[in-house]
Design brief:
- The structure holds two protein chains of two kinds.
- By secondary structure, chain A is mostly beta strands.
- Chain A starts with a strand and ends with a strand.
- Chain A is 0% helix and 56% strand.
- By secondary structure, chain B is an all-beta fold.
- In chain B, 0% of the residues lie in helices and 50% in strands.
- Chain B is built from no helices and eleven strands.
- In chain B, strands 2, 4, 5, 6, 9, 10 and 11 form a seven-stranded mixed beta sheet that branches.
- Classes of the chains: A mainly beta, B mainly beta.
Chain lengths: 114, 114
């Protein structure tokens, strides 16, 4: 059974620093991995989608990498800003599922200190 | 604007009073699903639908019903809500069954059952 883990559960970083969020998954048989942002009590905003054949995706100050063989992904945030404070979720789409379900990690709650 | 909408956004109700949370997408997506999000448990899939008139159970379907009479709408029905269904609910959609597509999420519905 596919499990997705995000460590740490919470992280505080001074403004301006670069940071890395980690995501690991137990089964490398995936179609893709998606990173989301969630603001308190709000919906999920898709940040980056990495297909299984890709190694990384970039959007602005965000860069996500995927190492399928080791079951790891990282989300790199450059020059962090207070507006980056949110919970970041990663999710994988397993190949063994007959439906279109994606499996979520429990998220990393990020706080950027002004 | 391409989006997934949910109504209501917030709802407080009492045990046993039937309610419906609506979900609509304007992207002509075939696949739609419902998730609930609870502290410490993350997001879990309730029901999903591959296309019109095709629905199936997810991980936590007990106490819920869905219908898919039209492509754009996928309502979530709680026939007799109970306090353990207090949660944050998300509707999601993606273009088709292709597992390479990303999922788009609605803004969420915060439900409290007293």
């Amino acid at each position: 059974k596919q499990e997705v883990t995000q460590i740490p559960a919470a992280l505080s970083v001074p403004e301006g620093e670069n940071l890395v969020l980690n995501c690991s998954f137990t089964d490398s048989a995936i179609y893709n991995l998606q990173w989301f942002r969630q603001d308190p009590g709000k919906g999920l905003t898709s940040l980056l989608l990495i297909q299984s054949s890709q190694r990384e995706q970039t959007s602005g100050r965000l860069n996500a990498s995927l190492d399928k063989s080791s079951g790891r992904s990282t989300l790199y945030i450059a020059a962090s800003q207070p507006g980056d404070s949110a919970t970041y979720l990663c999710a994988v789409r397993p190949k063994m599922n007959r439906d279109d379900k994606i499996i979520f990690g429990k998220g990393t709650r990020l706080h950027i200190l002004p | 604007e391409a989006q997934v909408t949910q109504n209501p956004r917030y709802l407080i109700t009492v045990t046993g009073k039937k309610l419906t949370v609506t979900c609509s997408q304007n992207m002509n997506h075939e696949y739609m699903s419902w998730y609930r999000q609870d502290p410490g448990l993350g997001l879990r899939q309730i029901y999903y639908s591959m296309n019109v008139e095709v629905t199936d159970k997810g991980d936590v379907p007990e106490g819920y019903k869905v219908s898919r009479k039209e492509k754009r709408n996928f309502p979530l029905i709680l026939e007799s809500p109970s306090p353990n269904q207090t949660s944050l609910y998300f509707c999601a959609s993606s273009p088709d069954q292709s597992s390479y597509n990303e999922q788009f999420f609605g803004p969420g519905t915060r439900l409290t059952v007293l």
